[in-house]
Amino acid sequence: MRRLALAFGVVVLSLAGLTAYLLATFDPNRYKGLLVDWVQTKQQRTLVIGAPMVLKVFPKLRLKLAKVSLSEHQRAEEFLAVDELELSVNVMPLLKRQLVIDQVSAKGVRLSLWRDAQGRANIDDLLKKDEQAQPPGAPSDPLQFDVAGIQLEQVQAKVQDVKTGLTGALTVNSLSSGRLSDGVPSDFKLDVAFDLSQPQAAKGALKGTFRLTPRLATGSADVDQIKLSLQGDVPGVRALQAGLEGAVAWDGEHASLQARALVAEVSGQVGGQLGKPALVLDKSRVSVDAFAYDPAQQLMAVSQLAVALTGQQDGHALSFKLDWSELDVKGDQLKGSPLQGQFKLAGPMAVEAQFASQSPTGGFSAIKVPGLKVDFKVSMAGQGGQRDVVGQLSANVSAQPAQAAGALEALHLQARIQEPSLQPLVIQMDGRAAMSPGGAAQWALKGQVNANPFLSDGTAKLGTGVPQVQASARFTALDLNRLMPVPAGGSASASAPAAPAGGAPDAPVDLSALKAIDGQFKFSAGTLVYRQYKLADAELNATLDKGHLNLSSLSAKAWGGRVVASGSADAAPQRLALQAQAEGINILAMLKDVAQKDVLEGTGQVKLNVQTAGSKLSQLVAGLNGSAALQLRDGAVRGINLAKSLREFKAQLSGQGDAVQRASQSEKTDFTELTGTFKITNGVARNDDLVAKSPFLRLGGRGDINLVARQLDYTVSATVTGTIKGQGGVGADALSGVTVPVKLKGPFDAPDWQIAWSQVAVGTLQNTVKSRLEDELKARLGLAPVASGASAPAKPAGSLEKQLKDQLKGLFR
Fold it and tell me: Band of the pLDDT at 92, cuts 50, 70, 90?
């Protein structure tokens, strides 16, 4: 026995010495190639270890790696890169299928995650389970783990998810934890930054602490002692500052959530267009004592929900309050209390509203809040004083928590607008609205505006990104002037003509609102009144897509004819285009409405095809390019009476001076037909082919109309084509066939008309007068026919000299 014991001791010592030698001389870098080959064969990825590995086996398995990278599956692009990675594992618990990790630390991690439109991701091969069957007798108990702590620094992940439209980057500046083990609370501290470009820009940081208790058997976790803060810009909210405190519990197996003493405080700029925030929240608060949601057990409970929002709307105070004491749903059983609240907004358009409901009914499949009533009052400046809109909205609210859907049933709105200068305006509306899963909404409404019926229906997708809307509305009659406040700065009638375009040349023009919504829109009205415009049978079809407005058709009866137009507008860069044609219109009525001018009369056709770009009104005018044309009949040019001016030509013949006269709206030159085309270049309209006809005049014209400087530089060539006796006598008839230039020069509001007698050829006038005198003389002497083709009259006998004297007396009588 003594020898046997001695021999056993020698063997043990030898094995111990051999083990110590192997551990001391073990070099893991000898197996680096085998590890690289295994990853290439097993995962079809390329593993690169750029620095020597450090491995210690006893008493803890400790592995240190540096400059490690892993490629994409079957591709050379980089999937993962790590500057430093260290992992230590206790060896003895591994024999009991227990993974006891002493420490996990990583620094300088770069990760690329992507998923295509078909849902294929670049980590699918890593998550794929081994399909090989376990050998008989293999243990089936899950591997238990215990981590002493995690320490991560500078972990960057780039994400591109085509299926959801998510694109951006997530950076974990630091993440540390205590012990992580099943059922053991662990304290976490994190500092995370995010920068997303799609589906909407979002950039910010999340910092704070919380305690996590994982429960591996049920796939659930408890999170309490939450103290998190969020700062940054997120979709719909700029300069966001939010804090969250409380506790939540998540059950992954049943997708249930519970919360206790949850409080969120929020401030920031919510929404907004045209560079202004729609709402600035300041120390707003949402709290709930307890919340529970478990779709598997058809359970939902809310206790003491309180919402208190305070802030400013365009600098004016705003507040919103909601209180809901109790809601307890279990299957088909439901009990709860009515909800109530109020809303207030100060400013030029002050709003006050109070809302309340009856006690909820229904069950988990459909929670109904009947008898919701909202009493509201809106006050604003009106034409004759304060305008008040008083009304009530009522509806039955139906919510489906399991499907994340809801609806407003039996929706009814009645409002009355009161203002001293207007007759009471009553609006009634009935219908329904519904919200389906994924943020899709739909509505169908019908109503009346002062007994004028209308219908509206449509759908809207209100999920992530820009809302997608399809809407249509049909009005029998709509007078917008009775729905709008008076323009700022006066008590002028709402239907008065708008100020001329030149009144504010540097007024900004911002089309960024076109980016706020995408969709298709249809509108029609039997009659439509907006300020000075009165249209009949108006129809509009338009689409909005990523800031591009396409007006496919716009048609209406107006100014005695019909107008058809199409066009487009782009938010970035700011560009506008319009193609329009008006047939059978009264040009005077159109000019009065559109340009507040009354320089032209007639009925006919107008065509317009223009484009422009700019961020200010002056830039839009200066960048105007395109063409225009008009064809009118039975009209007149207001401002000068060329017939009257030509009748007075005798005084001009002697001195050859030019006559300058101020335009007068009491004077006008009639025409039977007028045509012309215009080429518009950088805000200047050039015309070279104006033609106007009348019984005794032919008018031609050419020149520039400077829309930028609002100046005219135009020359009209007036040619007398026939006798105008009775309008000017014999003297005017002497101008037949002579062209007289008439220059129009000066501002649009009061141009000067200059009859350029000095440019009329003197020889032409002299020859014309001489010819007329010779014809008259010969006729009186009987030496030539009075008119072509007429026989000469017989002359009585007598002294030729006496006859000549008598005839000359008659000529100059």
Answer: low
